[in-house]
Design goal:
The structure is a homodimer of 135-residue chains.
Chain A (H helix, E strand, L loop, with lengths): L25 H9 L4 H11 L4 E2 H7 L5 H13 L3 E6 L5 E6 L1 H32 L2
Antiparallel strand pairs in A: 1-3, 2-3
Helix pairs in contact in A: 2-5
The structure holds a DNA duplex (20 and 20 nucleotides).
InterPro entries (chains A, B): HTH_HxlR, WH-like_DNA-bd_sf, WH_DNA-bd_sf
Keywords (chains A, B): DNA-binding, Transcription, Transcription regulation
Protein name (chains A, B): Helix-turn-helix domain-containing protein
DNA sequence: CCGAATCCATCAGGATACTG
DNA sequence: CAGTATCCTGATGGATTCGG
């Protein structure tokens, strides 16, 4: 098993060790997903395009620096989570369109709040870092 | 106010290639921090205690499963970012108190929004995952 | 009591090449 | 055009131990 999925589903079909950790925190599990390198950016791009669909190559262009592998993995993860939907156009060459599901759209709200905080305060965070580096 | 400042590119490995990647996205950098395993939980615990201070061992007890190393690293990171403050009581044995700074407190708002989304919708996400596993 | 240091397992994620 | 497969690296983070 090379990869047991990025968003590790509880792969303990039976009693692993019980409850060593506290997996009952949905926030942690959410952050495990949107906290990955490209996921939140994909949601943002798709949200901005919504309700229009976006093609694979178009997404790759919007997300500078992402590889096919990571884009594919990111979209797969979001699709598995029911946050984005796929539509394949059976042409030659084939075209695949992505869009946020209604559930994915609701995620955009708190994500936008986080973005606003980042744009408002990350400069101050950076300043704090500089101050600390001086020591 | 993003006084834009000198817009210091955080990590230019060596030669600045212009804009191959987009390091100007503060959201990514924010998620790189709060997306780590324990950071958001620490902020939550500290926010709930605010304006009271919390001791190291107390934090460790609240965050089930965390090691000293990770708690220390998490708090250091938050302190460097100016989100939490430390107060050392020079007793024997020494006691160290942590609390959110005003800046850290402002982060609690969007973080709480994310938490609400998680509690409201993660069950649906899980259901989507099950449905996908069936294939 | 606090946390720094070491060792070690795992994994995200980048580069590349190949299929349909 | 869209997606998969393989290889490889550095960062994440857990357990443990030492120091102040």
């Amino acid at each position: 098993m090379t990869s047991s999925s990025t968003s590790g589903a509880p792969r303990s079909p039976d009693g692993d060790r019980g409850d060593l950790f506290d997996p009952g925190c949905p926030t942690r599990r959410l952050l495990d997903r949107i906290g990955t390198k490209w996921t939140s950016m994909a949601v943002k791009v798709l949200a901005e395009a919504s309700p229009e669909e976006v093609r694979f190559a178009e997404l790759q262009r919007s997300m500078t620096g992402i590889s096919q592998k990571m884009l594919s993995a990111t979209l797969q993860g979001l699709a598995r989570d029911g946050l984005v939907g796929r539509r394949v156009e059976a042409t030659v060459p084939p075209r695949v369109y992505y869009r946020l599901t209604p559930l994915g759209l609701t995620l955009e709200e708190p994500l936008a709040a986080l973005r606003e905080w980042a744009e408002a305060h990350m400069a101050e965070v950076d300043r704090a870092n500089r101050r600390d580096e001086a020591s």
